[in-house]
Amino acid sequence: WRVTPIPGPAxxxxxxxxxxxxxxxxxxxxxxxxxxPMSWIAGGRPQGGSRLLLFLRDRRLVAAxxxxxxxxxxxxxxxxxDKPNADGKLCADRDRILSRSGARCEISSFRLLxxxxx
Length: 118
Prior knowledge:
Elements: E1 2-3, H1 8-15, E2 27-31, E3 35-37, E4 41-48, E5 51-56, E6 61-66, E7 79-82, E8 89-91, E9 96-98, E10 104-115
Antiparallel strand pairs: 1-7, 2-10, 3-8, 4-5, 5-6, 6-10, 7-9, 9-10
């Protein structure tokens, strides 16, 4: 599986949800399961540190936390799933992702990001 950065028009509409965008709603984190079906992932981008933002096809936003030794910026041009599992899911503490530059990192957890309506 290959996950690419979000393309132009879709990126513009989804960027409004990114916590660092101007006028973006304040985002809070919620617990979620350890796996995401790969077919749900529309694209991704580094958020900073060791965290990737995953844009889901249903317009939800998920933070994928990488193992501590990894840098999210290595994944600026997308990522591949190393040896995808037959279940078709990307799972924390199981799957490793590969960058085009050769970085290989395990996902340590997923967090669902939702707008804080306070």
